[in-house]
Specification:
The structure holds 4 protein chains of 4 kinds. By secondary structure, chain A is of the alpha/beta class. Chain A contains 12 helices and 11 strands. In chain A, helix 4 crosses helix 5, helix 4 runs parallel beside helix 7 and helix 11 runs parallel beside helix 12. In chain D, strands 1-2 form a two-stranded antiparallel sheet. In chain D, strands 3-4 form a two-stranded antiparallel ribbon. In chain D, helix 2 crosses helix 13.
Chain lengths: 342, 567, 323, 345
C-alpha cells in the first residue's frame, strides 16, 4: 500500500502534545504516529477527550501556540509542517488541507453570509475576481447538494438547517480542491437521516475529487460505513490500528471491543440497553501510568501497570499486553454478551 | 495678631496711593476739563472694547434688571431725569441733572417737584423725547412690576393703586405732564429726602412711551444714552454701539464715550477671563479674579490692577428670634470672637477687604468709624477678644447648643462659613455649615419658615443714603415672617430705633447733615444690640488690559466704561 | 414593524413624561424653591411678590401648573426662565447643544479609535507585556475621576507648562464655535476630548479585549484559521466583527447619555457651556423651566439612544433580524 | 492569566482531588486566593483602609493640628523660622493670600488648604468618609436592587410592569443629573421619613443618594437572572413538587443571585467612590467641615494655580483606591462568575 518512493500525503511521527496549565505541563497526546496516502479514507475513533481532535489540530497549527507544545514530526507530501512559520503553513491550510468542523452552527461566523465566507476562502488562496469566486461558490454549494444554491449563497448561517449548514461547511472546505480533508465529527450534531446523507456526500466527494479524508468520530457505526483504515485513540494514544475490515473482523484491544459493542445491531431485535464501558476516560491531567485504559478494563492484569509494547510499524496491531489468545477469547465473550443478555 | 502691623501699613500705603490718583483726576476735571476732554477725545476716540463675564445678568429691561452688572451698563445707555455724577470716587454721590434741565427745588410742602425736560434729545431709534415718554415711563415701572416699584416709587401719589392693579396704572395725580411748558411734575404723598437718588437709578430710566408694558427680556428698549444695545444674547454676547442720535448735553450726567463699540462676551470662566486680559484679548472682566490668580496679578500686572472701595459690607445676620442668638450676649460674643483680619484673608488679603464692626461702609453718608467689638474698642478693629466672648457665652448659658450656618456655595462664602464654624465651636457650640446655591440662599435665609440661625450675606448700596443700609436691613417694616422677601434677615425689630430712623428720614428732607449725624448714632446703637456681625468691607479689583486708559471708578456704579478708551 | 415602532415611541413618551413629572415634584418638594421672591428681586415688597406669584401662576394647583408648563414648552415654545427673566428656555438648550455635541462627538471619535486599538492590540498580544501594560493603563483610565483628570490637564496645560512648547498652543478655556473659527474650535476642544475619552478608552478597551479573547475560543475562529486566513483578517473580519455588537450597544448608550448632559463634569472643568453645565446651573438655581427643558432633552437622547442601539443591533447582527 | 483553550478545565478539576465536593463559594474563594493581582489589590485596599482609620492618630501625634478647625493666623516653625500658614502676598500690590505649600515634614506634609488646615490629615479623614460612603452606598444599592429585582422577576405580572417602568424612568435619567437633583433638595432640607429625621449635613444623605441612583444598574441584571432561574429546570421541578413559593425564593433563587451580588460589590464600590467624589466636587456631596476626597479636590480647585498639591493628592488617592478595587473586582468576577458580562457604570 505504501509507495516507498512517493512520500505519503501526511506522515505523522511520534507526535506529542502537551498543555501548559496552572499546575504545570500536562501531556494530552503521546507518541502518535500514522500516515495517510492520497485518496485514502481514514477514521480516527475514540471517546471525547481521547485526543483525536487535538492531535489533528496541532498538526494543522490550530492550537494556541502560547499554551500548547507540539513535539515530534509531521510531513505533508514530504515537507515537514510542524514548526513551519505561520505564513507558510497558511498556504497549506485551507488550500491543501481543509478542515470540516464539528458543529456547523458555531463553526461559521454568524455575521457573514455563507457565500461571503466561501468566497473569502477562495480569494485567500487564489487570485480570482469576486464574480468568479462567487460563481465557484455557488457551484460548490450546488455540488454538495444544497437546493437553490444561489439563494443559499446570501443566507446567514442561522438561517439554514443543521444539515444544510454542514453541507455549506463542506462546500467551503472543498473550495480549493484540497488534497486532504479533515472532518471533525461532521455528523454528530445532525439527526440520523441527515447523517447518512452527509456521509454519502463525503464518500462521493472522495470519488469525484480524489481527496484523502480523515474522519474524526466516536461512532463506530459511521466508521464501518465509510473508512478504509481505522485508528482507535484512548487517553492521547493510538491503541489500535488497522484496516476497517481487520478491525471490524477482529478487534484486538478491550477498549475497541467496548466501542464495537456500543454499535446498535443493524438487524435483529434491539437490545434493551447497549452495553457501555464502565467508568469515564481520564483527563489529560490524570492519565494513569502504564496502560491508561487499565482502570476501566475488565481484562487488566499485573503487567498493565507498565506501558504496553509499542505498535508495530504497520499492519493491524493493538497497544495491549493481552496475547492473541486472550484477545480472541475476550472478543468472543463480548460479542456474545448482548445476545445472552437479551 | 502678629501679622497685623504689616497688613495695616500696606493698607495705609495703598490708601495714600489711591488718594494721589484721586487728586490727579480731580485736577483733570478742574478748570480746563472741557478742553482736556476734547484733546483726549481726539487722541483716543474709536476702537472696540471687549468686556467679559462668566454669565449675563438676565433681562435687559432697565426697569426690571436689578444687578450691578447691568446697572453699570445702563449708565451709558439710559437716562433718568437726574443722574449720579459720572466721576471718580465718592464725588459720584452728587446728583446732577440729566434729562431734566436742572435739579429742581421742592415745592413749599416738600411734596412736589417740577422737572423741565431738555429739548432736542432723541432716543436711539430717532424718536424725540417728550414729556409723554416721561409719564409713560413712570407708569411702566408699575406695569412691569419693577422690583423696586413698591419700595422706591410707592411714595408717588397714585402708586398704591398702581401696585394693586398694575395694568391700569395711570399715576394721574402723581406724575403730571405739561406739554406746552415741557415740564413734568411729580407729586409725592410725603416729603422724601432720597427721592432724587431714586430718580437717578436705572429703574427710573426714561423709555419711549411705546415700550412694551411687560418685561422685554432679551429685546433691548431704545434709550437716550451715548450707547445703545445693538444685540443681546444672554448666552454669548451683548453688543453696544454708539447711539447715532446722541449729542452730549451734560458731560457729568451722560458723557460721550471714547470707544465705538463694546462687545460684552459671556460664558468665559474667571480663569479664562483673566488669561484673556493678560493676553490682550479682552479689556475687562466683570467677575472678581479667582483667589489663586491674585498674587500673580498683584505682582506681574500691578499697573493693570485697580482697587477701589465698594459701598458694601459682608455680614452674618443673626436670627434674633431663635436660640442661641435671641440672647444679646451671644450675639455680642460672636462679634467679639470673630477675627476680621482672618476673614479679610479669605477674601484675598488685607488689601482687598477692610475689617469692619459697623453697618455703614466707610465714605458713606453717616459713616463715623467706630468699633466696640475689639480688644481696644475705639475707631478701628484691632484683634478679637476671645476672653470677653467666652465670658458672655458663659453668662448666657447657651454653650453646647446646635448652630447651623447657612452660606452660599461660592468659595468665599463657604470659606467664611467654615471659619465662623470654627469660631462658634471654640465658643462651645455644636456647629455645622450648610452651603446652598447662591441663587437660592438669599431668599432662603430671609424666610423665617426655614429657621435659619445664622447666615452669610452681603449688602451693596442702591444709592448713597444711610437708610439704604440701616432702614432697609433692620427696620421693623422689612421683617415679614414667613415670606421669602423679608430683607431684615435678623428678624430684628427695635421699636425705639425704628422711630429714630423714621425721624432721621424726615430730618434729612430739611437738614441732610444733621440727619447723617443721627444715622451714625443709629448705626452705633444697632451695633450695641448686635443683630448681625459685620465682617468686612470688600473692595473691587478691576483687572484691565494694558491698552485700557481713562479708568474711572464711581462709588455708585463702579467702573464707568464710557470714560475709558482703548486707543 | 409599525407596531414595534409605535410601541417604542409610546415607551419613549412614557419615560419622558415620567421624568418630567418626577423633576416637577422634586422641585416643589424643595424648600426655598418658591421662585416668586427671587423673580421679584431683592428687597421687593410683599405686594410685588404676590403680583409675581399671580403673573407666573404659582398660585394654581400643581397639576395645572405642570400642564401649563408643558404646553408652554412644547406647544407655544416660549417657556421662560425663572432666573433670567425673559430668557426663552428653548433657544438656550438649542445653543448649548452644539457645544455638547462637539465635545462628545470628538471624544467619541477618540475613544472609539482608542478603544478599538487598545482592545485589538491587547487581545492580539494576549498574555504578553504589551497586553498587560495596555490593560493596566486602561484600568488606570477607568479609575481616574474625569473631573480630576481634567483639572490636572488644566494644571499642566494652562499653568505649569503653558509657557513651554508642549502646551503653548493651548488657548484659554472656553468654547469657540466651529463655524467661526474651526482651528480655534479644534484647539480648545483637544484637551477636553482627550480628558473625556480616557475613561471610555479604558472601558471599551477592556470590554473589547475580553470579548475578543472570548471570541477566540469560538469554533468559527478555528474555522477561519483553518481556512488559511491571515491573523489580521481573522482578528478584524471575524473576531472583531462579532465582538463589535456589545461594543456598539455600549457606544450608543454612552453617547446618548453624554449628549444628554452627563458630560457635565468635563463641561464644568473646561468651562464649556454645554447642556450638562446648563442643567447643573439650572438645578443649582432651581430654575424649573430650564431644568424641565434640559432634563426632558437629556432623557430624550437617552431613550433615543436606546432605540437607535436596538436598530443598529438589527443592522449589525443578522441573527436579530428575524426576531 | 487564565486560559481556557486547553480542552479540559484543569483548575476546576482540582476540587475532586480532595475527594470531597467543595461548595462553589469555597471553590471561588480558593481561586481568588491564588489570583496574585487580586490579592495585591486587596492588600493595597486593606493598607488604605487602615491608614485612613488611623487618621485621628495622625492628626493628633504627627501633624498636631485639628483638620476641622480653621487656623488662618497660625504659624509654624520651618528651618528655625516662624512661617505663617496663610501667607499674604508681599510682592507688588500684595494681593491674595497663599497657604503654605508641602513641607514634606510632619506638619503640613502636603501643605495647607484655604482654611490653613493640614491637607495630609484631611486627606486621611476624607478617605474615611469616601470609603464609608462608597461601602455603605454599595450595600444600600445592592439591598434595594435585590429587593426590586427579585420582587419584579419572581412575582412578575403587574408588580413587574410597575417596577420595570420605574426602573426605566430612573435609567433614562442621567445618573449625575439624578444625583444632583436629589442632592440639591436633600442637602438643603434634610430628609424626614416618619419619625426619623436625617439632618442635612449627615453622611447618610450622600450614602442614600449614591445608593439609590445605581439601583437600576444592578436591579436589571438581577431581575433578568431571577427570571432565568424561574424558568430553569430545577425551579420548575421544585414547583412541580409543590414546594411553597417562599421556599423556592429563599432556597433556590436567592443563593444564586448572591453570586451576582458578590461580583458587584468591588465594582460598585469603585464606581461609588468616583461618584461620591464627583458629587462632592460639585459641592453637593459631603458637606463641610466633613471632608471627603472629592471635597478636598473641590476646595483645592481654588488653589490649583499656586498649590496644586491640595487637589492632586486626593485625586491620586482616589485613583489608587479605585484601581485596586477594579483589579480586585476583576479577580472576584473571574472567580465567582467568569462568564458574566457585568458592566456597572
Amino acid at each position: 500500500m505504501t509507495d516507498p518512493i512517493r512520500p505519503a500525503l501526511l506522515d505523522v511521527d511520534h507526535l506529542k502534545v502537551s498543555f501548559a496549565t496552572d499546575r504545570g505541563r500536562v501531556t494530552a497526546i503521546n507518541d502518535v504516529s500514522f500516515r495517510i496516502d492520497d485518496g485514502e479514507f481514514v477514521a480516527i475513533v475514540g471517546e471525547s477527550g481521547s485526543g483525536k481532535t487535538v492531535s489533528l489540530l496541532s498538526i494543522l497549527g490550530l492550537t494556541d501556540r502560547r499554551t500548547t507544545f507540539v513535539e515530534g514530526t509531521a510531513a505533508f507530501r514530504g515537507r515537514p509542517i510542524l514548526g513551519l512559520p505561520d505564513r507558510e503553513l497558511r498556504r497549506i491550510r485551507g488550500k491543501q488541507i481543509a478542515f470540516i468542523p464539528q458543529d456547523p452552527l458555531t463553526a461559521l461566523t454568524p455575521v457573514h453570509t455563507i457565500g461571503w465566507q466561501i468566497v473569502e476562502q477562495i480569494r485567500t488562496h487564489e487570485t480570482v475576481s469576486k464574480e468568479a469566486a462567487k460563481k465557484r461558490a455557488i457551484e460548490l454549494l450546488d455540488e454538495v447538494g444544497l437546493p437553490n444554491p444561489a439563494a443559499a449563497f446570501g443566507r446567514y448561517p442561522h438561517q439554514l438547517s443543521g444539515g444544510m449548514r454542514q453541507r455549506a461547511v463542506i462546500a467551503m472546505a472543498l473550495s480549493c480542491n484540497p488534497a486532504l480533508l479533515v472532518a471533525d465529527e461532521p455528523t454528530t450534531a445532525l439527526d440520523v437521516t441527515v447523517q447518512a446523507q452527509v456521509l454519502d456526500l463525503l464518500k462521493r466527494l472522495r470519488r469525484d475529487h480524489g481527496s484523502a479524508i480523515i474522519l474524526i468520530t466516536h461512532d463506530m457505526g459511521v466508521v464501518a460505513e465509510v473508512a478504509d483504515r481505522v485508528m482507535v485513540m484512548y487517553a492521547g494514544r493510538v491503541i489500535e490500528r488497522g484496516t476497517a475490515r481487520e478491525i471490524f473482523a477482529a478487534p484486538e484491544h478491550p477498549y475497541t471491543w467496548g466501542l464495537m459493542a456500543s454499535i446498535p445491531p443493524v438487524e435483529g431485535p434491539r437490545p434493551h440497553r447497549l452495553p457501555s464501558i464502565p467508568g469515564t476516560p481520564p483527563t489529560p491531567a490524570n492519565i494513569p501510568p502504564g496502560c491508561a485504559f487499565a482502570p476501566r478494563c475488565a481484562h487488566r492484569f499485573a503487567p498493565c501497570a507498565g506501558l504496553p509494547p509499542a505498535l508495530s510499524a504497520s499492519g493491524h496491531d493493538a497497544f495491549c499486553f493481552l496475547d492473541d489468545n486472550a484477545r480472541a477469547a475476550g472478543r468472543a465473550a463480548l460479542f456474545a454478551a448482548p445476545e445472552t443478555a437479551a | 495678631m502678629t501679622c497685623l502691623p504689616t497688613g495695616s501699613a500696606l493698607r495705609r500705603g495703598l490708601a495714600a496711593a489711591a488718594g494721589l490718583l484721586l487728586a490727579s483726576t480731580a485736577l483733570m476735571h478742574g478748570a480746563s476739563a472741557a478742553e482736556d476732554r476734547a484733546a483726549l477725545m481726539a487722541a483716543h476716540r474709536g476702537g472696540t472694547m471687549r468686556l467679559v463675564a462668566n454669565a449675563a445678568a438676565g433681562t435687559i429691561d432697565p426697569m426690571v434688571n436689578y444687578t450691578s452688572q447691568f446697572w453699570q451698563l445702563y449708565q451709558s445707555t439710559y437716562d433718568g431725569l437726574l443722574a449720579f455724577k459720572h466721576v471718580n470716587g465718592t464725588d459720584a454721590f452728587t446728583i446732577v441733572p440729566d434729562l431734566a434741565e436742572e435739579v429742581p427745588a421742592p415745592s413749599a410742602d416738600g411734596k412736589s417737584y417740577t422737572f423741565k425736560i431738555r429739548k432736542g434729545i432723541k432716543f436711539s431709534n430717532g424718536q424725540d423725547l417728550t414729556v409723554k415718554d416721561v409719564v409713560a415711563s413712570f407708569q411702566r415701572i408699575f406695569k412691569v412690576a419693577s422690583p423696586t416699584a413698591g419700595t422706591f416709587y410707592n411714595g408717588i401719589v397714585g402708586a398704591d393703586a398702581c401696585l394693586k392693579t398694575p395694568a391700569d396704572c395711570t399715576l394721574k395725580d402723581g406724575v403730571v405732564a405739561d406739554e406746552a411748558a415741557g415740564t413734568v411734575t411729580i407729586n409725592l404723598v410725603a416729603p422724601d429726602s432720597e427721592f432724587f437718588f431714586k430718580l437717578a437709578v436705572p429703574h427710573a430710566s426714561i423709555l419711549p412711551a411705546d415700550a412694551p408694558a411687560k418685561d422685554v427680556g432679551t429685546a433691548p428698549i431704545p434709550g437716550t444714552g451715548s450707547y445703545m444695545f445693538a444685540s443681546y444674547d444672554p448666552n454669548t454676547q451683548l453688543k453696544l454701539v454708539r447711539n447715532p442720535h446722541f449729542k452730549e448735553w451734560n458731560v457729568d450726567a451722560q458723557p460721550e464715550g471714547y470707544v465705538d463699540e463694546v462687545d460684552y462676551d459671556f460664558g468665559l470662566t474667571e480663569e479664562a477671563g483673566i488669561t484673556a486680559i493678560q493676553n490682550g484679548q479682552a479689556d475687562w472682566l466683570f467677575d472678581p479674579p479667582p483667589a489663586d490668580r491674585l498674587p500673580e496679578l498683584g505682582s506681574k500686572f500691578q499697573n493693570q490692577v485697580h482697587i477701589n472701595n465698594l459701598m458694601a459690607f459682608w455680614y452674618a445676620p443673626l436670627n434674633t428670634n431663635l436660640a442661641p442668638f435671641n440672647d444679646e450676649r451671644v450675639r455680642q460674643a460672636l462679634n467679639y470672637a470673630v477675627d476680621r483680619d482672618a476673614l479679610a484673608g479669605l477674601f484675598g488679603g488685607s488689601v482687598l477687604a477692610d475689617p469692619t464692626c459697623q453697618i455703614l461702609p466707610p465714605g458713606f453718608p453717616g459713616y463715623k468709624p467706630s468699633c466696640v467689638y475689639t480688644q481696644d474698642p475705639g475707631e478701628a478693629w484691632s484683634a478679637p477678644d476671645m476672653d470677653k466672648a467666652k465670658e458672655l457665652v458663659a453668662a448666657s448659658g447657651t454653650a453646647g447648643q446646635k448652630v447651623t450656618i447657612i452660606t452660599e456655595d461660592t468659595a468665599v462664602s463657604k470659606a467664611i462659613g467654615t471659619y465662623l464654624q470654627s469660631v462658634l465651636n471654640d465658643l462651645g457650640y455644636d456647629t455645622s455649615v450648610k452651603p446652598i446655591s447662591a441663587n437660592i440662599q438669599f431668599t432662603y435665609i430671609q424666610n423665617t419658615k426655614n429657621n435659619v440661625q445664622i447666615s452669610i450675606s452681603q449688602w451693596f448700596q442702591d444709592y448713597p443714603a444711610a437708610s439704604d443700609f440701616l432702614n432697609i436691613l433692620l427696620s421693623c417694616a422689612s421683617f415679614t415672617p414667613g415670606s421669602d422677601a423679608s430683607i431684615n434677615i435678623s428678624g430684628y425689630c427695635n421699636k425705639d430705633l425704628d422711630a429714630k430712623m423714621k425721624s432721621a428720614l424726615a430730618l434729612a428732607v430739611t437738614d441732610q447733615a444733621a440727619a447723617n449725624e443721627e444715622w451714625s448714632k443709629i448705626d452705633a446703637a444697632f451695633m450695641e444690640k448686635a443683630p448681625l456681625v459685620p465682617l468686612f468691607n470688600p473692595k473691587r479689583v478691576d483687572f484691565v488690559s494694558g491698552r485700557l486708559g481713562g479708568y474711572t471708578f464711581s462709588s455708585v456704579f463702579q467702573w464707568l466704561f464710557a470714560n475709558a478708551w482703548v486707543k | 414593524m409599525i407596531t414595534a415602532l409605535i410601541r417604542r415611541l409610546a415607551e419613549m413618551v412614557f419615560v419622558m413624561v415620567g421624568i418630567s413629572v418626577m423633576v416637577f415634584l422634586i422641585f416643589f418638594a424643595t424648600p426655598g424653591s418658591d421662585p416668586a421672591a427671587r423673580i421679584a428681586g431683592r428687597n421687593a415688597t410683599q405686594e410685588a411678590v404676590a403680583q409675581v406669584r399671580v403673573d407666573f401662576g404659582f398660585d394654581r394647583p400643581l397639576p395645572v401648573q405642570y400642564v401649563l408648563m408643558m404646553k408652554r414648552l412644547f406647544v407655544d415654545r416660549d417657556l421662560k426662565s425663572f432666573v433670567n427673566r425673559g430668557q426663552n428656555v428653548i433657544p438656550q438648550v438649542l445653543e448649548a447643544t452644539p457645544i455638547t455635541l462637539s465635545l462628545v462627538f470628538g471624544a467619541a471619535v477618540l475613544w472609539v479609535i482608542g478603544g478599538l486599538a487598545v482592545g485589538v492590540i491587547a487581545a492580539a498580544t494576549q498574555g504578553s507585556l504589551i497586553d498587560r501594560t495596555l490593560m493596566v493603563l486602561a484600568l488606570i483610565g477607568v479609575s481616574m475621576p474625569v473631573f480630576w483628570f481634567g483639572e490636572v490637564m488644566n494644571l499642566l496645560s494652562q499653568a505649569r507648562f503653558h509657557d513651554t512648547w508642549l502646551f503653548s498652543w493651548v488657548p484659554a478655556l472656553g468654547y469657540k464655535p466651529l463655524s467661526e473659527d474651526p482651528w480655534g474650535w479644534f484647539k480648545t476642544l483637544v484637551i477636553p476630548w482627550f480628558s473625556l475619552a480616557v475613561l471610555y478608552i479604558g472601558i471599551y478597551g477592556r470590554v473589547l479585549r475580553a470579548n475578543l479573547v472570548e471570541a477566540y475560543q469560538e469554533d468559527f475562529i478555528r474555522t477561519a484559521r483553518a481556512k488559511g486566513l491571515s491573523p489580521a483578517r481573522v482578528m478584524l473580519r471575524h473576531a472583531l466583527r462579532t465582538s463589535l455588537i456589545p461594543f456598539i450597544t455600549m457606544f450608543g448608550l454612552d453617547f446618548g447619555v453624554l449628549v444628554g448632559g452627563s458630560a457635565l463634569l468635563t463641561e464644568v472643568v473646561f468651562g464649556l457651556n454645554g447642556i450638562g453645565r446648563l442643567t447643573y446651573i439650572a438645578l443649582q438655581n432651581l430654575d424649573l423651566p430650564m431644568i424641565l427643558a434640559t432634563v426632558i432633552y437629556a432623557s430624550f437622547f437617552v431613550v433615543l439612544a436606546n432605540a437607535v442601539v436596538d436598530f443598529i443591533y438589527i443592522f449589525v447582527d443578522p441573527r436579530m433580524r428575524e426576531a | 492569566m487564565t486560559d481556557a483553550t486547553s480542552p479540559s478545565e484543569t483548575p476546576a478539576a482540582a476540587g475532586t482531588a480532595t475527594g470531597r465536593p467543595q461548595s462553589p463559594f469555597r471553590r471561588a474563594m480558593v481561586k481568588l486566593w491564588y489570583d496574585r493581582a487580586a490579592m495585591i489589590a486587596a492588600s493595597v485596599l486593606v493598607a488604605i483602609v487602615i491608614t485612613c482609620l488611623l487618621a485621628p492618630v495622625y492628626a493628633k501625634y504627627v501633624s498636631g493640628t485639628d483638620p476641622f478647625r480653621s487656623s488662618l493666623s497660625a504659624k509654624i516653625m520651618i528651618d528655625g523660622k516662624r512661617v505663617p500658614v496663610m501667607a499674604p502676598s508681599t510682592e507688588g500690590l500684595g494681593l491674595g493670600v497663599t497657604p503654605i505649600g508641602p513641607t514634606f515634614g510632619a506638619k503640613y506634609m502636603l501643605g495647607a488648604d484655604t482654611q490653613g488646615r493640614d491637607v495630609a490629615a484631611r486627606l486621611l479623614y476624607g478617605g474615611r468618609n469616601s470609603l464609608l460612603i462608597a461601602g455603605a452606598a454599595t450595600l444600600v444599592c445592592l439591598f434595594f436592587a435585590t429587593l426590586i429585582g427579585v420582587t419584579s422577576g419572581f412575582f412578575g405580572g403587574a408588580t413587574d410592569v410597575v417596577l420595570s417602568r420605574f426602573l426605566d424612568v430612573l435609567w433614562a435619567f442621567p445618573v449625575y443629573l439624578l444625583a444632583i437633583s436629589l442632592s440639591i433638595i436633600l442637602i438643603a432640607q434634610g430628609l424626614t421619613i416618619g419619625p426619623f429625621t436625617i439632618e442635612s449635613g449627615s453622611l447618610l444623605l450622600p450614602i442614600g443618594i449614591i445608593g439609590v441612583i445605581y439601583v437600576p444598574y444592578v436591579a436589571r441584571p438581577v431581575r433578568g437572572q431571577v427570571i432565568a432561574l424561574k424558568r430553569s429546570e430545577f425551579v420548575l421541578a421544585s414547583i412541580g413538587l409543590g414546594i411553597p413559593r417562599w421556599r423556592i425564593l429563599f432556597f433556590d433563587i436567592l443563593p444564586n443571585v448572591t453570586t451576582t451580588l458578590i461580583v458587584f460589590v468591588p465594582l460598585m464600590m469603585a464606581l461609588n467612590i468616583v461618584t461620591e467624589s464627583a458629587l462632592s466636587f460639585l459641592s453637593i456631596g459631603v458637606q463641610p467641615p466633613d471632608a471627603s476626597w472629592g471635597t478636598i479636590i473641590q476646595e483645592g480647585q481654588g488653589l490649583l494655580y499656586n498649590r496644586p498639591m491640595v487637589s492632586v493628592a486626593p485625586g491620586i488617592a482616589i485613583v489608587i483606591t479605585v484601581l485596586a478595587l477594579n483589579i480586585l473586582g476583576d479577580g472576584v468576577r473571574d472567580a465567582f462568575d467568569p462568564r458574566s458580562k457585568l458592566r456597572p457604570r
